[in-house]
Amino acid sequence: MSDPVFNLKRVFRAPQSLVWKCWTSEEHVAAWFSPPGATTKFLHFDCRPGGHNHYAMTTLPPEGNHDCAQGEAGTVMYGKSVYREVNPEDKLVYVNAFSDAEGNLVRHPMAPEWPLELLTTILFRTVEGGTEMDLTWVPLNASEQDKAVFAAGLEGCHQGWSMSLDGLDDYLAKS
To answer: What is the per-residue DSSP string for 118-143?
Structure first.
């Protein structure tokens, strides 16, 4: 199987310099990155080639349901991004993965056949009306089974990223 590719393009009504800051500044990323009903806290943030981000994303239990399996605080999932390329205002390349609380890479907590690592490339360019962002995910060092699970999950990737990018749209509108 050839490597499946996830790609999503979006135009934001904001200058390229601001959209870039919203992807590369801890304060900005923490404000928009989480999907609705979740919060993100960075345990480490170092956006430079060779640097990495380590974060905890906490989903909140449904309103009024404090007896759910997740408990009062909700479910915590950890993630890690290791930067390969940081080309100011134009391009980010990093390896993205789930991790444990210490930053060790782990399999997806709900989909163990999900690829351990994804190569993430994000391109930014000024277009009429704002900034176009072009995001691509490709499984890295993945087995055929990992690739098949990723290919089957592309619609879910689209939904998840769309929710986060809706948050970025809202955040940029307030900036």
So the answer is: EEEEEEEEEETTEEEEEEEEEEES--
